[in-house]
Amino acid sequence: MRLAFIGADHEVTGSCHYLEVGKKHILVDYGMEQGVNVFENAPLPVDEAMIDYVFLTHAHVDHSGLLPLLYAKGFRGQVFATDATADLCSIMLRDCAHIQTMEAEWKNRKAKRGADFQAVDPLYTMEDAEGIIKRIVPCHYDTVVEVCDEVKIRFTDIGHLLGSSSIEVWLTEDGQTKKIVFSGDIGNKNQPILRDPIPTEEADYVVMESTYGDRYHSRERVDYVKELTQILQETFDRGGNVVIPSFAVGRTQEMLYFLRKIKVDKLVKGHERFQVYVDSPLAVEATEIFQDNRVECFDGEAMELVNAGINPISFAGLKLAITSDESKLINFNEEPKVIISASGMCEAGRIRHHLKHNLWREECTILFVGYQAVGTLGRSIVEGATEVKLFGETIQVKAQIKQLAGISGHADKDGLIDWISAFKEKPKKVFVVHGEDSVCTAFTECLKVEHGQRAYAPYSGTVFNLLSNKFEYEAEPIPLKKKVRPASGVFARLLASAQRLLALVQKCDGMANKDMAKFADQINSLCDKWE
Q1: CA-CA distance, 340 to 284, in Å (whole number)?
Q2: From CA 261, how far away is CA 509, in angstroms rounded?
Q3: Crossing angle for the helix pair 281-292 and 251-264, to the nearest 10 degrees
Q4: With the C-alpha atoms ordered 82, 88, 93, 96, is the resulting torsion angle positive or negative?
Q5: Per DSSP, what are the bridge partners of residue 63?
Q6: What is the DSSP letter of 275?
Q7: Of the residues 34, 202, 334, 450, which has the maximum number of CB atoms within 10 A of its CB?
């Protein structure tokens, strides 16, 4: 019974943990890395085709974004997630595949102008996204799910995103059962729309995030409506636009919640009829999913509006841009307006076009409302860049750059400590992950020195034996080097198929001899055909 750390160790994105119990191989999250990554990630301990199950904490791509790649490389197991996470993944993973394809096409068009052209293939395709979506098993909150004889799980609302969860995992091997809890991303308290995180009381081991383990949100409850109103008033009075780079799922819906209040109460004087554009097909679909899951996931204040027949995230003047033509027309409208567009870190998507049209205008405001990872365009702008590159063109940064104080989907240091302190007995070990290197280290020391927790911050590749309560291997940090480009295209599909076949053969142990012999003959016949 082992726990291995693969991704988001002393780093914030690319979350991935590996569990082995008996002959079962399990991943908890399989996320995409974003921004600058400092350390090399260890490879998965087994081929992708050998993975039996994935337990998914939530739909954000730094936790779910590589699931289609897992499928492309031969995974055919089940992905367990909450009902709302399953709904969100059905649109987000397709969106990821679309972005992968579009970026590959753009790079190929650009590279063709060079002398040494080499075709670039997308990381995965829409077919891979569709394949993994079909393998998702929706689960209710607070319900124990019997995954197999050795494993059972339960999802608990952690308040970070619609459908987000911490996951309790019970593992049984050699007559012994151990319980490990994965926090996922712990939500901030008193957020609009979503409930506060629900703590867990018992665990042998805990794997917890530390994104904001070195800082505190505002001690006073921030009046987001008041702050946003002031930014809108000042910008519209100058004749400018307010451009909000926003995560399509979660933060966009929160902004709509605030903007509905501002519009209904006519708080922006002289501009009461201002328009709000949501320029993201993904955000539009995600908003519908929020509505579908409101009973299970909304907090009391939002539910009061719902019960009164009021849609808390819709209002007069809300415009939805779906097609690329509709997106382009937004910047031909000279009236002051709000533009909400993805991605939240400005790394891809339509937001980059809106930045190109608005960053250079002194009368405009670029309003950041979410975390900006190191190395992203959003982080560069927030930290004071005077010019940026967009679509090969240098753009001067003359717009006002603002951040909505305190708004975050992540718990701060106090929130993290409250969550881990809710366990009735201190776990045997608390593994601290999902934080920038210095943050992860500092928060671990805080837990040990100030709160008596048996805390440890593993590097990628660390392996811990859950039965013996001992490390089998403690990895050292390995600085990231330029990686060799993996096999791609049709040859990559062939390699993935071979891995899947090998995984299937290894699972045949215990099958009737007659059936194994027949299978062997079929494989040999296939080899004879192609040799």
Answers
A1: 11
A2: 62
A3: 80
A4: negative
A5: none
A6: E
A7: 34
What is the DSSP code (8-state) at residue 40? P
- Give residue 483's pLDDT: 47
> Are the C-beta atoms of 24 and 78 separated by less than 8 Å?
no
Residue type, 403: Q
b/e per residue, 251-274, with b = 16+ CB within 10 A? bbbbbbbbbbbbbeeebbeebeeb
Question: Which one, of 472, 469, 451, 453, lies nearest residue 461 by Cα?
Answer: 472
d(C-alpha 99, C-alpha 122), whole Å: 9
Strand, helix or coil for residue 442 = helix
- Answer for the pair 474, 465: CB distance below 8 angstroms, yes or no: no
pLDDT in tens, 406-432: 677 889 999 999 999 999 999 999 999
CATH fold match for the domains 2-216+409-473 and 224-403: no
Taking the C-alpha atoms of residue 198 and residue 328, their distance in angstroms, rounded to an integer, is 42
What six digits make up the tokens of 320?
């939805």
Describe the crossing of helices 224-238 and 251-264 by its angle, rounded to 10 degrees: 70
**Could you tell me which residues are beta bridge partners of residue 430?**
206, 455
Domain positions in the chain are 2-216+409-473, 224-403, 489-530
Is residue 354 within 8 A of residue 331, CB to CB? The reply is yes
The more confidently predicted of residues 351 and 343 is 351
Phi, psi of 357 (to 5 degrees): -85, -15
Rounded to whole angstroms, the Cα distance separating 225 from 107 reads 41
Give me the DSSP letters along 168-236. Answer: EEEEEETTEEEEEEE--SPBPTT-SSBPPPPP----SEEEEE-TTTT----SSPP-HHHHHHHHHHHHH
- CATH class, domain 224-403, is alpha beta
Stretch among 201-205, 486-490, 526-530 having the lowest mean pLDDT: 486-490
CB 244 within 8 Å of CB 277: no
Determine how β-strand 165-173 pairs with β-strand 151-157.
Answer: antiparallel
Q: Are 11 and 474 in contact (CB under 8 A)?
A: no
* Gap between the Cα atoms of 132 and 78, Å rounded: 9
In whole angstroms, give the CA distance from residue 217 to residue 188.
Answer: 9
Most confident among 292-306, 333-347, 424-438 (mean pLDDT): 424-438
Residue 392 tokens read as 């090969």
pLDDT at 146 over 90: yes
CA–CA distance, 32 with 39 (Å, rounded to integer): 14
| Residue type for position 174 | D
Among 3.60.15.10, 3.30.10.10, 3.40.50.2020, 3.40.50.2300, what is the CATH number of 2-216+409-473?
A: 3.60.15.10
CB atoms within 10 A of CB 290: 27
